[in-house]
Write a sequence for this structure.
């Protein structure tokens, strides 16, 4: 039982369960651990690939997260020259300048984009991105511009910085192979995370170079 419940990947590849009762539950007489993959589900049973049929009266789906297949983006977004954001991300790596702007997508703020999440908190992430938006919008108002778009150079520089920082982080030091961790996308990158402190994210939101955007 202990061997079956022991992860074969490093701590942190998935969200850990901080509980003193979870593992004990498997020792109860009415609990059975099944590790064989599910073949299919019938109206009153789960059938595994081993051919075992487990009768059930209630099925609770707790299979975890899959962020990358449907959430980036959550709906179709088409930019300049018909560029489809979802298809472009999947072909060219997930990327977004400061986690909010993408080249060839003018007048688009895409919140909580790749490399946006700071401190693993949605709220601190959004707060920093609101500061970024406010700084840029004030600049747009001062210049009487009507269109903004992040430059290719600024986006590439930010992507390189994030890639290098993550590569040197503790997050990449372990082995997450076989964990099916939702942190990692199909490119093998943990592009949801911003590998800086929350203070750094807020500082960048207030001080990023306005020249990183082209205004017209």
């Amino acid at each position: 039982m202990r061997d079956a419940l022991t992860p074969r990947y490093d701590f942190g590849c998935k969200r850990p369960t901080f509980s003193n009762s979870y593992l004990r539950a498997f020792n109860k007489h009415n609990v059975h651990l099944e590790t064989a993959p599910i073949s299919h589900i019938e109206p009153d049973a789960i059938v595994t690939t081993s051919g075992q049929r487990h009768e059930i009266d209630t099925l609770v789906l707790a299979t975890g997260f899959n962020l990358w297949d449907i959430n980036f983006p959550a709906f179709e977004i088409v930019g300049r020259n018909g560029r489809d954001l979802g298809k472009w991300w999947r072909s060219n790596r997930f990327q977004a300048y400061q986690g909010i702007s993408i080249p060839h997508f003018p007048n688009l703020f895409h919140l909580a984009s790749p490399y946006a999440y700071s401190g693993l908190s949605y709220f601190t992430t959004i707060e920093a991105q609101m500061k970024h938006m406010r700084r840029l919008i004030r600049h747009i108002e001062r210049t009487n511009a009507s269109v903004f778009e992040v430059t290719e150079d600024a986006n590439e520089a930010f992507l390189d910085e994030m890639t290098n920082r993550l590569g040197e982080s503790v997050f990449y030091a372990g082995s997450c192979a076989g964990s099916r961790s939702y942190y990692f996308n199909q490119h093998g990158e943990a592009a949801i995370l911003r590998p800086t402190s929350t203070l750094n994210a807020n500082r960048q939101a207030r001080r990023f170079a306005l020249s990183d955007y082209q205004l017209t």
In short: The radius of gyration is 22 Å. The chain has six helices and five strands. Residues 154 and 209 are 9 Å apart (CA to CA). The longest strand covers residues 38-42.
